[in-house]
Automatic annotation (TrEMBL):
Its EC number is 6.-.-.-. Pfam families: CC_BshC (PF24850), Rossmann-like_BshC (PF10079). Residues 380-537 form the Bacillithiol biosynthesis BshC C-terminal coiled-coil domain. This is Putative cysteine ligase BshC. It comes from the Bacteria. It comes from Planococcus notacanthi.
Length: 539
């Protein structure tokens, strides 16, 4: 395994402008996304109020169910003694969700180590599991390659209703059947049995989606001492009680500030990704097991189209007595993370950073500033088969990604093998048929206007048959060159599945099945420099 670095232009204008330091977007953040920004942020954190012993106890209790490693204990001790944290987070995806979840965890570990060396002070990595999220459709699927195409395998999730990932009790027989189908779609290798056993062993000891996710996170990063916490953990919710009160008291100001920031971003040429509304409360409440979004209406907080209503005082009482019923949305989650932890830096993907561009004013409402917002490390894993194909066709990774070189070569191949004479015969016949039907149409319309739709329909039947003939000709030509077309498809399915980076599509288990269970450990051992360059990992 080796690493190569190349700059790949982001598809997001906001992200491209942000990492390249353009003033139009930089004004929406407190710091540049650079290692040099960490020193100034560290000084600001000296006044950050946090009950480190109590919060460390919350983390220790939550992580203890999977067994605390020596590295995790050292990180907890460092945190208790004053260490700041770098934070990332993600929903509790099945088998960790796409690769970028693992990349986020790798990013905070790498960033914490490099920041510790640069600042000469211990920095601790933390993973915030968004277990309160109830959009189970986003986490209950996996992608695999089937017959040369990228296929999405969905697991039915309607039975969980609006339960969150942490409160939904897994239907283990269904999940197991789903995962068995997934593993059957993977090629049998010397590693398949081991990773199959790992997955099903952890599934057996899990109760919820979040449990399963946390078990995998712990398995991959135990030796690194990555700290992790479920946002829906009841002990954490109790710790957050005073912060929920502040958010309830100032919910109108939060909503107004974020909506204004999105309007300003739009004026500067950036899309408003949240679509924030000024009547939003930016909080959820759980009622009878269902997580419902709150809005402000006529001085009250309402949910379920007004069927459920709370006065501000009632909601403050809930925050005081049963804070586990409350949860954050995309706007208040960053605020909560900052209130709970002394955050040196937040690590996010392009979508998250687009959200964060609207939050500076909301942070300032509470006397806070944005932490250093760092883009996560972006990685592409290239297996040996793909390496050989890239060499065979003299393709460069950057050209494949930036210039869609594979699509160009495929089109060139198609153009070179087309049966142009046969296609011309079909085209000429279609022209003759259409010309003849014009005359038929003209003649029939003089007899009866009721006949013209029949003429038009009859013409379309002939055109359809000629199109069918042309497609069959093309299929036969492609079939005769199927090996080369198959190679091009294999390269794209590996490097650009569904037209985007593999880290947004595939689970790490596809690559563990090829490489071995030590994949994540070996990735962490690579000399990954924390910068804006894309990391190409040659397996």
């Amino acid at each position: 395994m080796k690493v190569e670095e190349q700059y790949i232009e982001s598809a997001s204008k906001l992200m491209s402008d942000y990492v390249n330091g353009r003033p139009a977007i930089r004004q929406y953040f407190s710091y540049d996304p650079q290692m040099q920004s960490l020193e100034g942020r560290l000084k600001k954190l000296q006044s950050h109020s946090v009950d480190r012993i109590k919060l460390s106890g919350v983390l220790r209790q939550y992580m203890g169910r999977n067994g605390l490693s020596e590295s995790a204990e050292r990180h907890l001790k460092s945190f208790e003694e004053g260490a700041p944290v770098v934070v990332t987070g993600q929903q509790a995806g099945l088998l960790t969700g796409p690769l970028y979840t693992v990349h986020k965890a790798i990013s905070v570990i790498v960033l914490a180590k490099q920041a510790s060396a640069q600042l000469n002070t211990k920095v601790v990595p933390v993973f915030w599991i968004a277990g309160e999220d109830h959009d189970l459709a986003e986490i209950s699927h996996l992608y695999r390659e089937v017959n040369g195409r990228v296929d999405k395998l969905n697991i039915p999730h309607a039975e969980y209703g609006k339960h969150s990932a942490s409160s939904a009790t897994l239907n283990k027989p269904k999940i197991a059947s789903f995962l068995e189908e997934y593993f059957r779609s993977l090629p049998e290798t010397e590693h398949t049995k081991e990773i199959h056993g790992l997955v099903f062993g952890l599934l057996e000891q899990s109760v919820s989606f979040t449990d399963f996710f946390a078990c995998l996170l712990d398995h991959f990063f135990k030796e690194e001492g990555l700290l992790y916490i479920d946002a829906a953990d009841e002990n954490l919710r109790n710790y957050e009680s005073p912060y929920f009160k502040q958010m309830i008291e100032r919910s109108a100001e939060i909503a107004e500030t974020v909506a204004a920031a999105e309007r300003s971003l739009a004026k500067d040429g950036y899309s408003a990704v949240i679509g924030a509304e000024e009547n939003a409360a930016h909080l959820f409440i759980t009622v009878k097991g269902e997580r419902l979004l709150l809005e402000r209406q006529d001085g009250e907080f309402v949910a379920n189209n007004g069927a459920i209503r709370f006065t501000k005082q009632q909601l403050l009482d809930i925050a005081e007595k049963t804070p586990e019923l409350l949860s954050n949305n995309v706007v208040t989650r960053p605020l909560m993370q900052e209130m709970v932890f002394p955050v040196l830096a937040f690590v996010g993907g392009p979508g998250e950073i687009a959200y964060w561009a609207a939050f500076k004013g909301a942070f300032e409402l509470f006397g806070m500033e944005l932490p250093v917002v760092m883009p996560r490390l972006s990685l592409t894993l290239v297996n040996r088969q793909t390496q050989r194909l890239l060499e065979k066709y003299n393709l460069d990774f950057a050209a494949v990604v930036n210039e869609r070189q594979v699509a160009i070569k495929r089109n060139e191949l198609m153009d070179s093998i087309r049966e142009k004479e046969a296609e011309a015969l079909i085209a000429e016949l279609q022209n003759q048929v259409e010309k003849a039907y014009k005359e038929i149409h003209k003649k029939f319309s003089t007899i009866s206007t009721g006949l013209t739709p029949i003429v038009e329909k009859n013409l379309q039947l002939h055109v359809k048959q000629l199109s069918f003939l042309k497609n069959k000709l093309e299929d036969e030509v492609v079939l005769q060159n199927s090996i080369e077309f198959g190679h091009y498809a294999a390269i794209e399915n590996e490097l650009l599945p569904n037209g985007g980076f593999q880290e947004r599509i595939y689970s790490p288990f596809i690559y563990m099945n090829q490489y071995g269970s030590g994949l994540v450990k070996d990735l962490l051992a690579l000399p990954l420099k924390y910068d804006k360059n894309h990391k190409i990992i040659w397996l």
